[in-house]
Amino acid sequence: MLSFLMEVYMKILENGVRLDVIQSNKYKTNRCIVKFITPYHPFEASALHLMSRMMEDGSNSIPSKGAIESILADLYGAELAISVHRRGHFHELTLSTAIVRQDLIAEGTSLTTEWFNLIKELLFNQAFDETNEGFMQRFNREKKLLQQAIERQKDNKARLARRRLYEELYQYEEAAYSAMANLDDLEKMTLVDLKTIYEQWLQTAEVVVLCHGEFNNDWVDKELSTWPLTVATNSYSYQNNELVLSKAKSATYLEEETSGKQGNLAMAFKVPYAETFKERMKLQLANTLFGQSPTSQLFTQIREKQSLAYSVSSAIDVARGLVVVTAGVDSTLGKKVSNQVVEESDNLIDTLQDDDHFNKIKLMLISNMVQSIDSQINELNYRFIEYKNPSFKYDVEVYTKMMNQLTAQEIKHVLKEFQLVQTFFLKGVESIDE
After folding, report:
1. Which of 269, 305, 373, 382 satisfies CB 3.0 to 4.6 Å to 394 for a cystine?
2. Which whole-number Å values give the CA distances from 339 to 92, 343, 344, in the listed order?
3. What are the contacts of 275-283 at 24+ separation with CB within 8 A?
4. 8 Å CB contact between 336 and 423
């Protein structure tokens, strides 16, 4: 039987960086995740999305994405990706990177210094200089490519229906939008704008670095202490991080036409904001029974038994305190399917009990948890979630015990709190021009 070393080291460095190192030889790679956290603003969301693409494309000293790929290849095929996400009231720009463990490569070969130099180079050596012709070309190219990527998303009708649902629900306030860039903001964005936001971002961001593998803690401390950061005055809490509706909302049904043969339905159910780990688990179980799994009420009844939808499922939007149902349906069935979704919610409440099906769903979620935690990147992500949400504990034993204790009566209570607040149907009509 394999035995793995596992020790946890945490320190706040002098430049404000929070460093968490999980010392482990469980995996063949060393992995680091660097997170920059700042309050959300729509224009900054567009800037950060563009900035992340430019970081992946080079730096002041690295001329292109091809040059980055060459460096990664020399580091025994290291990997690196940069992304931007919205977490409630905050942005997260995340650099995730991994490299083969030092003890698994040729003796006398050291890659860690070069690896950390690359991370530092991409994050902190960005010129954003209008007089730099190469950088201006990169800016214009990445801006155009990002605009094209956003335009292509319009062809995804399911995504469009969900976006329109949020826009109507939040009346076009900033809570309606994700971290994805906005076309109007991108169009007017200049390199000066990007430089200004980049400099402010370095001064105000909370920076969290999480590493997993075999590291020299003192060496990592020293290396990260050279990062040119102003000590952040804020440690942004993710407790009470809900994007609340600005006013009470009664359920409305809206319909718009688009080109195509199929309709796309999106429905938002307001649910109590899951602030604690147990509340999150109860909502997870309720949603799995409702529409998340292939054996859920919505899938088995609306798709399989009644054949009313090509696809139907539900998902939790944690930050907004919503359960969102999406369905691909015939263009003539929007209203009928939306009514049936509400009816199936009531049917689930009426029929749910502590039976074999209920216990199998709990067992499936426990199994999913066991599998998900056996991943280096997930171990780091769970560590970050626990830091931001102190009541959460991503431990298999804790999760299993809490899940097994949940009863059908508790889940019925959660389901009864599902309140339909908005329905949006994107109706496909063949005669509509794009």
Report:
1. 382
2. 37, 6, 9
3. 275/239, 275/240, 275/391, 276/391, 276/392, 277/389, 277/391, 277/392, 277/393, 277/402, 278/402, 280/318, 280/392, 281/399, 281/402, 281/403, 281/406, 282/406, 282/410, 282/411, 282/414, 283/316, 283/323, 283/414
4. no
Q: What is the DSSP letter of 182?
A: P
CA distance 209 to 211: 7
Mean pLDDT, rounded, for 243-247: 82
Closest CA to 354 of 314, 410, 298: 410
The residues with which 263 forms a beta bridge, in sequence order, are 329
Helix (H, G, I), strand (E, B) or coil at 171: coil
User: Domains in the chain, start-ordered, CATH in brackets?
Assistant: 8-226 (3.30.830.10), 252-429 (3.30.830.10)
Q: CB under 8 Å to 255, separation ≥6 — which residues?
A: 334, 424, 425, 426, 427
pTM here? 0.92
Please state, in angstroms and rounded to a whole number, the distance separating the CA atoms of residues 101 and 161: 45
Indicate the DSSP class of residue 417.
T
For residue 388, how many other CB atoms are within 10 A of its CB?
20
pLDDT tens column, 365-410:
999 999 999 999 999 999 999 999 988 888 999 999 999 999 999 9
The C-alpha torsion from 66 through 72 and 75 to 79, rounded to 10°, is: -160
Q: How far is CA 13 from CA 33, 113, 170, 292, 311, in A?
A: 16, 19, 40, 42, 49
Instruction: Give the span between the Cα atoms of 407 and 416, in whole angstroms.
Output: 15
> Phi and psi dihedrals of 165, rounded to 5?
-60, -50
Closest CA relative to residue 261, chosen from 425, 433, 430: 430
List, edge to edge, every strand of the sheet that includes 79-87.
Answer: 6-12, 18-24, 206-213, 29-39, 90-100, 79-87
Q: Any idea of the CA torsion for 386, 391, 397, 402, to the nearest 10 degrees?
A: -140
Which parts of 261-394 fold into alpha helices (H)?
277-287, 297-298, 334-351, 356-373, 376-388
Contact 29, 379 (CB under 8 A): no
Cα 26 to Cα 29: distance, rounded to the nearest angstrom: 9
The Cα 89–Cα 174 span in angstroms is 10
The per-residue pLDDT for range 304-348, each reduced to its tens digit, is 999 999 999 999 999 999 999 999 999 999 999 999 999 999 999
